[in-house]
């Protein structure tokens, strides 16, 4: 009896390859095109407002005509700096340009042509609390301008149960009040709108919910109101 011809044995993966290729092609046909270019809304890593100095920032003063007066110094915890000739200057809560204009005016009585520039050499570290559906909830120590998405990523990223379209930022004001601001990180990641990735401020609380936004009230009551008696206002981030 003649031996039967040898037939190669095809593995299950080899037999499934055509089906896999067809499935991937079908997905490619139905998938939306990848969005490129800048997102609508303000820039992602900057704020519409200029940066305001705070205690712990390190400033450098450079004088164009009198470089011997150049110096680098920190902003003290009381928000002021001490410099030769003009002594105490309050800088916390003010922009770099505001400080430069005041120093130029003050030095006008001491120097013939007081031209100078103020540079932020190092930003102070400030606390931001990130809670909810993130890998490592807790208090983060950030420095410099940071956005909502950057804070969530610094907390280990979001869980699969997170509702990224309804992230909430609890923000307090110098007057003592607080407000809730929504941040649609889903729209940011999808490339539809960058407005939800706004810059954070010291002591902001970022909450990534796992349920509709109405349940945020329960979280606020559990984690904040029971510890600090505060009142809230609420607004949606729908600015153009």
Concise overview:
The protein has 240 residues and is α+β, with helices and mostly antiparallel strands. Helices cover 22% and strands 25% of the residues. The longest helix has 19 residues.
Q: What descriptors fit this protein?
A:
disordered C terminus, single chain, alpha+beta, 11 strands, 5 helices, 3-stranded antiparallel sheet, 6-stranded mixed sheet, 240 residues
Helix content: 10-25%
Proportion in β-strands: 15-25%
Question: How far is the first residue's CA from the last residue's CA?
Answer: 85 Å
Mean pLDDT, to the nearest integer, reads 76
Strand arrangement, largest sheet? Answer: 7-6-10-8-9-11
Stretches where pLDDT falls below 50 for ≥5 residues? 8-17, 19-47, 227-240
List SSEs in N-to-C order: HEEEEHEEEHEEHEHE
How many β strands by DSSP?
11
Describe this structure in words.
The protein starts with 11 loop residues before the first helix and ends in a 5-residue tail after the last strand. β3 and β4 form a beta hairpin. With 240 residues, the protein is α+β, with helices and mostly antiparallel strands. It is built from 5 helices and 11 strands. The chain has a 6-stranded mixed beta sheet with strand order 7-6-10-8-9-11, with helices on one face. Strands 2-1-5 form a 3-stranded antiparallel beta sheet, with helices on one face. It has a two-stranded antiparallel sheet with strand order 3-4. The C terminus is likely disordered.
